[in-house]
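User: Predict the structure for this protein chain, please.
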Amino acid sequence: MAAEPTGRREAREFGEAVVFDRRFEAGIDEVWASITESAELQQWVGEWTGDPGSGSVQFRMTAEGDDVPAETVYLDECSAPSRLRARIYMGGGPDGDENGSGESEPDASGPGDEWHWEITLAQTAGVTTLTFAQSVDGSIPVSDVAPGWEYYLDRLAAYLAGEDVSAINFERDYHPAQCEFYTSLFAETAASGD
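Assistant: Here is the predicted structure, written as structure tokens:
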């Protein structure tokens, strides 16, 4: 059965974004660890290597298979346990190196799409709300990006609940099942001038 799409369109500091909320019956520190510690990330999405103190890490999406290359993620803010902001270049790094580990600091004129990620956490009465936003102004359609994040965030929910993340099926439940919703959502909002 296809999962119900939950994303919405919002303007953010970095531009237009698709935004998702997930609520977990878990403490904020537990949820923070699940999105920032490599061993925890491996359980639902991927792994990172490197020194976050340098301003970037190498991130590889292990949920995509064993042969997915690592990509450089630039860390703009890491305020434990409530806010993480990062950038990644899709389709080419800031030095034209397919988002490899270029030495220079990226800027918006890099040859790849610059994606911004923003994650905020808030805890109330033992429930932690995670809000995830990703910019969508690049060449990859939101109808492909949004179902992917629905899938990963549902895997995170399953992981935090102690459930089997492998039971969540991208092709069956997310893509292409949610593509029309996101195409329509973003087209309608653009047409209304919001």
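Helices lie at 28-36, 38-41, 142-160, 170-173, 179-192.
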